[in-house]
């Protein structure tokens, strides 16, 4: 996964901090020491909280203005939704396909 470059120095610092946080999670070092399970606190500023349906909230946050960009290769290529199970992947795919005309 590649994080984009911000347009301001502050945005670049936020992106760098977020990427380091993700890397620590991926390496299993965010809650050291741990016994194989750990609780990870997600910073409030990156939570998606304004939604009724969680899949709708995630899709609208990740793919803003999807209805006008679903044929735009670069738009689609620059975004991704990660899911923990294939069941969730199927639910997200079904939702997104339902948005297409």
From TrEMBL:
Domain of life: Eukaryota
Keywords: ATP-binding, Helicase, Hydrolase, Nucleotide-binding
GO BP, sorted A to Z: DNA replication
GO MF terms, alphabetically ordered: helicase activity
Keyword RNA-binding: no
GO cellular component: replication fork
Entry keyword annotation includes Oxidoreductase: no
The protein's name: Helicase-like protein
Lineage, highest ranks first: Eukaryota, Viridiplantae, Streptophyta, Embryophyta, Tracheophyta
